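debug: dumping io for the single-chain case to check the tokenizer round-trip. Nothing else runs in this session.
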Amino acid sequence: MDWFPLYNSLRIAGISTFITFFSGICAAYYISKLPKFIKGVLDCVLTLPMVLPPTVVGFFLLKTIGPLGPVGSVVLDFFGFKLTMTWYSAIFATGVVTFPLMYRTVRGAFDAFDHNLTYSAQTLGLSNTYIFWRVMVPNCKDGILAATVLAFARAIGEYGATTMVTGYIPGRTATISTTVYQLWREGNDAAASKWVFVNLVISFVVLVAVNMLENSYRQPKGKAVSHTLSEEFERR
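debug: decoded output
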């Protein structure tokens, strides 16, 4: 059994989740501070890939990063390599598809955050960076963790946009989802079933790991933040 589709799926999902983790948190943080109308418009724009068919997302990506697209043609002319039909082109596809999951989930957590804690921290003279990483993020960690898991699980199983920009090349661009489809097309249901089982096991292990992490670090909200603020107050 060739395990390349598993390796390729994991590295694509890992890299795209890493990117969407920081970009999604950053977008959610700054957009949550905007006026309601602008926030609503940006919500619609950034969430659009979540409701569009993945093949439509893949079509737009092809028109953008393909050899004749505005981005793909520039990269090809200046750097000499294509952004499509390679393993890393799937990172663009999974990143665009999973970003709305990260952004919407984290923004919901930020909207529910008790901003009185922020005001209390500001009265102590704490910087915005400190307040964000030591007060806001720990208090919203459940939502951030859930968003990260959703993004990773979605990236592992992404098919439509991925196959549009990477195709299926054994040993080069094949992922679990494209391999399942290809094996099914060839009538090899037994081999396809093995990859379906592998995908199910990965999804199950990820969800169990998240539940264990949540149980390990769970503590009443506000306690950790109050503790952090008290420590900072005593230091000052």
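debug: round-trip ok. Residues 189-217 form the longest helix (29 residues).
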